[in-house]
């Protein structure tokens, strides 16, 4: 694992399974064209968003140290974010949804450190530093919103996924990488789009994770705030897209009051959104989140919660009414009258209490799985966990006794009690047996030859959630994405163009440059006729210097580019308008 990244106390306390996603920012890898793309988008955004974004946005840009002129350094951002109790880390593109949300629970903002290509300056399906840094970071300067984000992470990372969710994550990651990469063959993009399309239409019943991701999308990424008639933007996807931030304000995009029903509205990451949700204020977001959480297995438990974990085929946890937590891959549940009466995990399992692994009950001890009855003894209204020492003695639940415990659902446990494990309040969490047989009718669930039997104590399952109770119980440093982001290709032509961008930047900053502005324009117009952004930058400087002759030549050249490349005409016009607006503002 590469740990060569700037750290701070908030990042230091992250568990190892999250740190595995962090990578160094490698600031020196940003090219002069990357810097020009950042500057163009930020100048356009700040100009436009000052009119349509939530008031926290512009205040937050200043508070989080995000500069319009240059791509932000994580180190600089962290120094400033620390003052509002947050931190930022760089990652490679999309990371799994559970991990993304768990970072938020630790007050850490995940930032994809790559930046979109000039060809995708308006919008990219791939997460990039414009989206994350200029979209997410400014709004977290608002304390009410920051708490919503943290709480969302805390609840969201416990949401149970389906096996299909992970397929969808991998498919979207691949599509975003192929779309952002240079020269990807059309058939490859088409195949990746078809895969995403197929999965989107064949997800079956939406999992908790799919539904909470919908809520995340319609708030954190694409949220509007205010009234349906006069909304403002706060979602990072809109704040970072110069195309969609304008499009979303038109009547072509339907505006809907934000409610829990947004959890059932899926989204297509590759297209502009046909409808958006408007929250009256940030407090309403938290109310809807709590309403959703109240329906999650995290809070409802029961038979349905266990079944969700079994369907997920992934590491999860159930918590019993005694507080005992069982973490592993759940494979079977026996039920009686709609209630679970016996649960079974397969493979490494750990037992915990209050998120702390019980001594002697880690994955080395429970390497083959764990099974236990759940519920009350048959015909006895008093659950084992509620029995006093006298009650326990009356029912022969006592060290050294040979006992047969018959549970509801026809589950029988027969063996000799060795000892019990209690919590700090004195409730029994576990009973350890030797020479033990566990059956349901004629089915044997455990036999003496398998060794010591640890029986969980709990009359019901009060919670089921994704991941382990104690994150140190399992080795989760094992995520290997099937795809890596593709870096831009190097070529002599590209390097020459980068060098021209670099020199124009030096001229703007008043630093010594290798060539004049006029020479830079001659080279870009002669050798790189398809490039438009550098000519816009040259026009800006010629305009500032009152070099009318050069300004006229650049304008004529840009008119030619617009004729040859009509798809960038509006971007050129936007750039020219920014220059003229700045002139009017300063005159």
Automatic annotation (TrEMBL):
Q: Which PROSITE patterns does this one have?
A: BH4_AAA_HYDROXYL_2
A molecular-function term among this protein's GO annotations: oxidoreductase activity, acting on paired donors, with incorporation or reduction of molecular oxygen, reduced pteridine as one donor, and incorporation of one atom of oxygen
Q: Tell me its cofactors.
A: Fe(2+)
Instruction: Spell out the Pfam families in the cross-references.
Output: Biopterin_H
Gene3D superfamilies per record: 1.20.58.690, Aromatic amino acid hydroxylase (1.10.800.10)
- InterPro entries assigned: ArAA_hydroxylase (IPR001273), ArAA_hydroxylase_sf (IPR036951), Aro-AA_hydroxylase_C_sf (IPR036329), Aromatic-AA_hydroxylase_C (IPR019774)
Sequence positions that bind Fe cation: 131, 136, 221
| Biopterin-dependent aromatic amino acid hydroxylase family profile domain segment(s) | 1-342
Domain of life of the organism encoding this protein: Bacteria
Q: Which UniProt keywords apply?
A: Iron, Metal-binding, Monooxygenase, Oxidoreductase
Q: Is Iron one of the keywords?
A: yes
Q: Reply yes or no: does the keyword Oxidoreductase apply.
A: yes
The Gene Ontology biological process annotation of the record reads: aromatic amino acid metabolic process
| Similarity comment text for this entry | Belongs to the biopterin-dependent aromatic amino acid hydroxylase family.
Q: From the Swiss-Prot or TrEMBL record, give the protein name.
A: Aromatic amino acid hydroxylase
Its organism's taxonomic lineage begins at:
Bacteria, Pseudomonadati, Bacteroidota, Flavobacteriia, Flavobacteriales
């Amino acid at each position: 694992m590469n740990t060569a990244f700037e750290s701070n106390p908030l990042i230091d306390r992250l568990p190892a399974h999250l740190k595995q996603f962090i990578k160094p920012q490698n600031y020196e890898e940003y090219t002069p064209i990357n810097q020009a793309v950042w500057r163009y988008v930020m100048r356009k955004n700040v100009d436009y968003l000052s009119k349509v974004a939530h008031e926290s946005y512009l205040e937050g840009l200043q508070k989080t140290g995000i500069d319009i002129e240059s791509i932000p350094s994580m180190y600089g951002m962290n120094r400033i974010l620390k003052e509002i109790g947050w931190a930022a880390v760089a990652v490679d593109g999309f990371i799994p949804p559970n991990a993304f949300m768990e970072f938020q629970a630790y007050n850490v903002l995940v930032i994809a450190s790559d930046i979109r290509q000039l060809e995708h300056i308006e919008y990219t399906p791939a997460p990039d530093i414009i989206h994350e840094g200029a979209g997410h970071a400014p709004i977290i300067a608002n304390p009410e919103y920051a708490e919503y984000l943290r709480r969302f992470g805390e609840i969201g990372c416990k949401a149970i996924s389906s096996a299909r969710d992970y397929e969808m994550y991998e498919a979207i990651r691949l599509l975003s990488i192929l779309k952002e990469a240079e020269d990807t063959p059309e058939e490859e993009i088409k195949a990746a789009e078809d895969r995403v399309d197929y999965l989107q239409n064949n997800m079956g019943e939406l999992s908790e994770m799919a539904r909470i991701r919908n809520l995340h999308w319609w708030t954190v990424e694409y949220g509007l705030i205010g009234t349906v008639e006069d909304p403002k933007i706060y979602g990072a996807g809109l704040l970072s897209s110069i195309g969609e931030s304008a499009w979303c304000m038109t009547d072509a995009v339907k505006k809907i009051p934000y409610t829990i029903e947004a959890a059932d509205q899926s989204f297509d990451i590759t297209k502009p959104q046909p409808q958006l949700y408007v929250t009256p204020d940030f407090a309403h977001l938290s109310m809807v989140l709590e309403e959703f959480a109240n329906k999650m297995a995290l809070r409802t438990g029961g038979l349905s919660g266990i079944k969700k974990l079994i369907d997920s085929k992934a590491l999860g946890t159930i918590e019993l009414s005694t507080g005992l937590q069982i973490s592993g891959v759940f494979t079977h549940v026996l039920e009686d009258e709609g209630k679970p009466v016996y649960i079974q995990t397969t493979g490494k399992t750990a037992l915990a209490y209050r998120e702390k692994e019980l001594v002697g009950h880690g994955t080395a001890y429970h390497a083959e799985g764990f099974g236990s009855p759940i519920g009350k003894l048959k015909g006895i209204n008093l659950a084992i966990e509620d029995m006093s020492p006298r009650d326990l003695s009356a029912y022969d639940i006592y060290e050294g006794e040979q006992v047969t415990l018959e549970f509801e659902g026809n589950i029988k446990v027969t063996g000799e009690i060795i000892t019990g494990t209690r919590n700090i309040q004195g409730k029994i969490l576990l009973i350890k047996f030797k020479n033990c047989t566990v059956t349901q009718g004629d089915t044997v669930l455990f036999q003496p030859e398998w060794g010591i039997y640890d029986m969980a104590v709990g009359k019901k399952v009060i919670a089921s959630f994704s991941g382990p109770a104690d994150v140190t119980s399992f080795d989760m440093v094992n995520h290997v994405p099937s795809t890596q982001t593709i870096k831009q290709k190097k070529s002599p032509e590209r390097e020459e163009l980068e060098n021209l961008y670099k020199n124009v930047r030096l001229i703007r900053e008043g630093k010594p440059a290798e060539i004049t502005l006029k020479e830079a324009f001659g080279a870009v117009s002669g050798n790189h006729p398809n490039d438009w952004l550098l000519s816009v930058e040259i026009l800006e400087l010629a305009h500032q210097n009152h070099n009318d002759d050069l300004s006229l030549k650049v304008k004529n050249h840009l008119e030619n580019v617009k004729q040859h490349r009509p798809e960038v005409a509006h971007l050129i016009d936007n750039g020219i308008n920014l220059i003229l607006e700045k002139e009017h503002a300063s005159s």
